[in-house]
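Why does residue order matter? Because the sequence determines the fold. Keep that principle in mind as you read this record.
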Amino acid sequence: MEGNSPQIVSSQQGMHTRLAAIVQRHCAQAWRAPLHAPTEAQFKRWSATRNAVRSLVVDLGCGHGDSTLQLAEHHVDAELLGIDQSADRLGRLAPQGYANHGRVTLMRAEAATLLRLLAAARIAIDVLYVLYPNPWPKPEHLMRRWHGHPVFPVLLANARRVVLRTNWRIYADEFVRAAQLLGRTGAVQTLADDAATLTPFERKYRASGHARFEAVIVDA
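Structure:
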């Protein structure tokens, strides 16, 4: 897996021209798609036993769950929730689709539904990590990127701090711009070559010589 990842290629060479219009449309009209029933069941199970005293850190799209366990070392007083929709990726650390590892819970869930459930239950996310999401680099796929998705206003409103890492600068720039359109403050930095990695994919990108970017969103 090390050192053989191709660079992202896209005909889109700057921020998408429709970004502002799409973000503003999603902000003006609440998303009312049906909730994912299996995720509702997983959320009910988790919320019944969670430690409400601890702050909550969410690893959105946690893959195998290694990143969530690593993040627990950085957030020693928090409860961590790692979610991914893939049973295969979670198979090692959460073979039944749900597992507790101390302060860490790994859960198979549909991310947009989980974000909506957290917001509806008024369970605020202290830090939300979005680590190397699928960049969906084709221009026509803007609404598949997190900042172009209808759930983005909910994601942003319920998270005090958001940390995104990506190996496509345009994704990071768009993410920050979308957050700014919704009244938040954010900035992008290029990570140093020797900066610590948080996921297996990030290690692969570093070994492949990719530039890595981190966008951080905070309250305005």
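The first helix runs from residue 19 to 28.
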